[in-house]
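Anyone up for a design puzzle?
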């Protein structure tokens, strides 16, 4: 329900190539680091969003979504469920087109609010798993 194939395909292929990855740092052991690397291989611009605002994979980082000085198409969320709700709301505020919650992150209220605001949303999926499946 929160990751139907049509929405997954739309987000990965139609909504744009600038992805803000919330929770992405230079820690190579974190899942966000590897997922961002895969997204870059598939032509996505990956913008790190992390309190440390580190440069990761050659892209300047920002401490928050609001600090990014250009349009963001998709907000990919690598924070725990308690923080993910606020990130979805911030994605709406900055005018993103979609929100992607990673594996294990589900919040039905955030899904309803985000969809009601006109954004596409996927939860409990990983774009690094889904994008190679598109062929």
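Challenge accepted. My sequence:
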């Amino acid at each position: 329900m929160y990751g139907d194939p049509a929405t997954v395909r739309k987000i990965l292929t139609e909504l744009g190539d600038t992805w803000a990855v919330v929770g992405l740092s230079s820690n190579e052991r974190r899942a966000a680091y590897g997922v961002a690397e895969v997204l870059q291989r598939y032509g996505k611009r990956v913008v790190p969003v992390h309190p440390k605002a580190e440069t990761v994979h050659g892209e300047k980082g920002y401490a928050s979504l609001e600090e990014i000085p250009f349009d963001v198409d998709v907000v990919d969320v690598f924070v725990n469920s308690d923080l993910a709700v606020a990130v979805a709301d911030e994605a709406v505020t900055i005018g993103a087109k979609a929100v992607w919650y990673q594996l294990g992150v589900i919040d039905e209220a955030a899904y309803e609010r985000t969809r009601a605001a006109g954004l596409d949303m996927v939860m409990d999926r990983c774009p690094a798993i889904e994008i190679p499946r598109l062929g």
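A detail worth pointing out: The longest strand covers residues 18-22.
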